[in-house]
Amino acid sequence: MARLRVLVGAVVIVDTALYAALVPLIPHYTEEFGLSKTVAGALVAAYAAGALVGALPGGLVASRYGPRLAVLGGLALTALASVGFGLAEDALTLGAARLLQGFGSALSWAGALSWLVAATPRSRRGEMLGSAIGTAIFGALLGPALGAGASLVGPEVAFPAVGFLALILIVWTARTEGVPAEPQSVGGLFRALGERVFVGALWLMLLPSLLFGVLAVLVPFRLDEAGWGATAIGAVFLVAAAFEMFLAPTVGRFSDRRGRLLPLRVALLASVGVSLTLAWVRPALAIAGLVVVAGLCYGAFWAPALALLTDSAERFGLAHGLSFGVMNAAWAAGNVIGPTASGSLADLAGDSVPFVVAAGVCAATLVLLGLSSRSGTRTLRVPEENLNPRGEFR
Question: What is the spatial distance between Cα 36 and Cα 346, in angstroms, rounded to a whole number?
């Protein structure tokens, strides 16, 4: 189990580091290729677009052929895309490489998380998923540092090095014992998508990725206008991710003991406040501090929402691979909508508007969550008839 946790952690670190590495490089590529905020937002979103396209295929591979094969395929695509990104000489090639990185991550995440859940008792699921999220955040922490390093040594050196690391992980994965596949048709997914709790959990996975997408596009521009370079911008997101990394396992354990909805309500309320504050604050140091606070508020969604999703998937008999595949789709949709919409809104109406809209979406979600809980939606429990004698889903 410990070996598997380390392997899963290494896989998600590579994925999230590549996703976050672009943040401090946005001003650099904007200047080099003459990009508008809208196009820069689209470049940030290309990774998530690839994950969106690869979400269902990744889930199907993980469930039908086993999590290990999905991880191997995802790592192979990641290695190829990393080399392409490092050697890109125009914005179109950058976008294509980001798209392929995202597609590979969809396979890796569906395989790695379903592999981890299959080996974890249900009573510790929130904690284990929180640990996985914390490890992923550590990758996001390394991402800005990777981007800042690439600005110093050159992308043609930094990103192919990540591709080489992915090749090492391929060998490690191939030598690790897998878990049985859970063959299932897409019909099971459609049945789950008809259930309110499952769809609500997907929305609560989409929302933080949308919020982080807004943050990743607009904050670098503000700090760049204040004279901050790629290294300083990367350091801000580095500190934010460091705090978020330690928060995720704690929130996951809390959700195991007190239910999934309470930490989600707190995260929503806090996200309303920090988003509205980001809309109006202008001093660079204050913005940097708010990025750290926003990382904690937005990051508090991940563990309880992901645990709620897997609880719900088990209740309706959905294979773990498919549930994590559709989770990838929700995450990716938020990361497509957040950067592209915020970049477009900023070009049209100014930087404050996207943050105000984000706060409004969080407030509306908080109201709907309250209505759902009053109608009886509490911590979701799997019916006893769906459990085997060891307390696991049949």
Answer: 11
Say how many Å lie between the first and final Cα of the chain, rounded. Answer: 21
- Look up tokens 């003459």; give the residue: 34
Nearest to 136 by CA among 329, 328, 343: 328
Whether 222 contacts 29, CB under 8 Å? no
393 three-class SS: strand
> Which helix (H) or strand (E) segment is 75 a member of?
helix 67-87
Which of 78-92, 237-251, 376-390 shows the lowest mean pLDDT across its residues? Answer: 376-390
Q: Alpha helices, DSSP H only, in the chain?
A: 2-20, 26-33, 37-65, 67-87, 91-118, 125-153, 155-174, 186-192, 196-225, 230-258, 261-280, 284-299, 302-315, 320-349, 352-374
pLDDT band of 372, cuts 50, 70, 90: low
How is residue 262 written in tokens? 């309470």
Q: Is the pLDDT of residue 266 over 90?
A: yes
pTM of the model: 0.74
Q: Is the pLDDT of residue 291 over 70?
A: yes
- pLDDT at residue 78 greater than cutoff 70: yes
Question: Could you give the C-alpha distances from 165 to 17, 47, 100, 170, 245, in angstroms and in order?
Answer: 12, 19, 17, 9, 22
How does pLDDT run across 103-120, given as a tens digit for each residue?
Answer: 999 999 889 888 888 877
- Let me know: does 43 contact 91? Beta carbons within 8 Å: yes
For domain 2-386, give its CATH number from 1.20.1250.20, 2.40.50.140, 3.30.230.70, 3.10.105.10.
Answer: 1.20.1250.20
Rounded Cα distance between 304 and 316, Å, is 18
